[in-house]
Write a structure and sequence with these properties.
With 130 residues, the protein is α/β, with parallel strands linked by helices. It has one domain (2-108): ATPase, nucleotide binding domain (Nucleotidyltransferase, domain 5), CATH 3.30.420.40. It contains three helices and five strands; from the N terminus they run βββαβαβα. The longest helix is centred in the middle third of the chain and has 18 residues, at 69-86.
Length: 130
Amino acid sequence: MIILTIRTDKPEAEVGLFDNEHTLGYTKWQAHRELSATIHHKIEALLRPAQKTWSDLEGIVAFRGPGSFTGLRIGLSVANALSYALQLPIVASGDPDWIKNGCVRLIKGDNEQLALPEYGAPVHITEPKH
């Protein structure tokens, strides 16, 4: 099973490509405020050397948090959009072994259908200024 992993909870983002639990490729980069502009390019750059395309993907594992509100929102939005568009199962995890546990869950047939973030604290929204 070809699995894409996505972690975007901190300024250094990570994407990985796995064949079951075997690593085909993994990259980290200082995405910080450029995450939304760079994540798709990083995924494509991960697929190329493994001789894979978007259509070869068979599942997605996303890091759900806790972490940065904006980072998690962008990463999980990308993961959920790819899952929906490519009709792939998706699971999310926030534990230290998130990749391994997520891959095992996908291989077993789990599918959350929608990966939701876990921010680690209530979201604080400021009142609009009038």
